[in-house]
Amino acid sequence: MNKELKREVDKRRTFGIISHPDAGKTTLTEKLLLYGGAIQMAGTVKSRKAARHATSDWMAMEQERGISVTSSVMKFEYNGYEINLLDTPGHQDFSEDTYRVLTAVDSGLLVIDVAKGVETQTLKLMDVCRLRSTPIITFINKLDRDGLDPFAVMADIEERLKIECVPLTWPIGMGSTFRGTWNILKHELHLFSATHGGKVQKGDIFKDINDPRLTDVLGEQVHQLREELALLEGAGTPFDLARYRKGEQTPVFFGSAINNFGVQEMLNSFVELAPPPQPRPTTTRDVSPYEDEFSGVVFKIQANMDKNHRDRIAFMRICSGKFTRGMKVKHHRVGKDFTIANATIFMAQDRTGIEEAFPGDIIGIHNHGTIKIGDTFTDKEPLKFIGIPNFSPEHFRRVQLKDPMKRKQLQKGLEQLAEEGAVQLFRPISNSDYILGAVGMLQFDVIVHRLLHEYAVNALYEPVSVTTARWIHSEDKRALDDFTDYYRSDLAIDAEGCLAYLAPNPWKLESAVERFPKILFSTTREIR
Ligand code: G4P
């Protein structure tokens, strides 16, 4: 095995943060970057977010896009590890993008607000992680505030996220009585003291739970701590690395991101426990990151990074081999050679040109619309990575053209935007409508704006009686033909040419499922 490649793969950790808005993702990211030396003082990420928040309409958001893209992949070093943190847009209207980003990580960090427990957005994101058995580390945040009992939060996670919790640290008190955490694996106590200004904080360390000085420090709370630890030891399940790696068990850490408390303990365990880049499935075989031949897959496309050039950046995850600047690879979907001359790597502070990159790294490639989500690039072997899904849209609109002469441009615009993953496009088989499907409503505003500015097409939306979509498959051709005849007026072809049933309401979907048992109704479709 190539020694350099093995060394580089083994020290990489590529992960994403899963959380409901406001749980503390931005604050925690900032602290992680602080430990990585990527920012000198906390506050940088936060101010970016504030800038984004202040902008309510898409036009302004577009101006901010340079910033949001820089922060969408953050690479930093910590203790000899090379960490790629992939930002998962917190706004639920961009959750489709978030889902795809989660297909490019090897593990996830789940952030839970101790006062709120599991929230809706977390549930959805965990569903995506479960599809791929992504290993998850949990950080329960905001212990400096009053919240739910730690046992109750863990029970909530276990019940609703269907993952077993194993605390590796344990909180002492909460809110005004929060005194710190006990590290269960290392048997040491970290005392909490609120700090401000984002400086790295360690706190005092006690090595023994029976240290008599603990009573001086913790007072009566020491008894509660000893009791709870005994309870955990008696009733709790021990940590099992293999089960964590399979996504069945999650190690849990408690802390307060804003006070930078508990973050480093979590990070230290994260780099040790989280898996390095993993093998990835293709249509023909699994590709190991240690293989010499280069391979990579595009999981996200960001348009209009630079207004003057109308270009798009394709985010590629390197899956195997070594990337070097200017290397020539095969772009299998279009059957052409492609020279990656101007790849960008996303450092936490800014974007820089790169000379080389390894599996687990994300590189950005400029292109003019030739690259699609799901595209695979390799040295030679014609591979096709799988596992990047399209999710059934939750909102639908019919597109109406203000100027009928612009039909061609509209079609081109919608097709390109669909390829980019900005929206899903459905063409009914019984008429010439354009029906758009989105996971978040904001996607519709973005499309109208981009049609106007990039394709000079003035379009509007009108409501359409579709509540959900299912992709249709069947091994039985006869059943498929019968189904197609019966539901002709509700069927459409998506941007990839796949058949979809656009259900006018849930009852009709239910009756279709009952009526045609040989038809498979799928809520996700793999991007081809
Ligand atoms: P997000 O990216 O997940 O949406 O969350 P973000 O980090 O922005 O945090 C959401 C709010 O929670 C922020 O308050 C943040 O300061 C606060 N927060 C984060 N971690 C902690 C913590 O450990 N303890 C406490 N008490 N609060 C925490 P905000 O009022 O919305 O913003 P700001 O005015 O503080 O900037």
Automatic annotation (TrEMBL):
Q: Which InterPro entries match?
A: EF-G-like_DII, EFG_III/V, G_TR_CS, P-loop_NTPase, PrfC, RF3_C, RF3_dom_3_sf, RF3_GTP-bd
Which residues of the sequence carry a binding annotation for GTP? 19-26, 87-91, 141-144
Q: Which GO terms describe its molecular function?
A: GTP binding; GTPase activity; translation release factor activity, codon nonspecific; translation release factor activity, codon specific
| Superkingdom of the organism of origin | Bacteria
Residue ranges of domain Tr-type G in the record: 10-278
Q: Look up the record and report any one GO term of the cellular component aspect.
A: cytosol
Q: Which Gene3D superfamilies match?
A: P-loop containing nucleotide triphosphate hydrolases, Peptide chain release factor 3, domain III
Under what name is this protein listed?
Answer: Peptide chain release factor 3
Q: What is the source species?
A: Desulfovibrio psychrotolerans
What are the GO BP annotations of this UniProt entry?
Answer: regulation of translational termination
Quote the PANTHER family the UniProt record gives.
PEPTIDE CHAIN RELEASE FACTOR RF3
Family under the similarity heading: Belongs to the TRAFAC class translation factor GTPase superfamily. Classic translation factor GTPase family. PrfC subfamily.
General function of this protein: Increases the formation of ribosomal termination complexes and stimulates activities of RF-1 and RF-2. It binds guanine nucleotides and has strong preference for UGA stop codons. It may interact directly with the ribosome. The stimulation of RF-1 and RF-2 is significantly reduced by GTP and GDP, but not by GMP.
Q: Which NCBIfam families match?
A: prfC (TIGR00503), PRK00741.1 (NF001964), small_GTP (TIGR00231)
Q: Where found?
A: Cytoplasm
Q: Which UniProt keywords apply?
A: Cytoplasm, GTP-binding, Nucleotide-binding, Protein biosynthesis
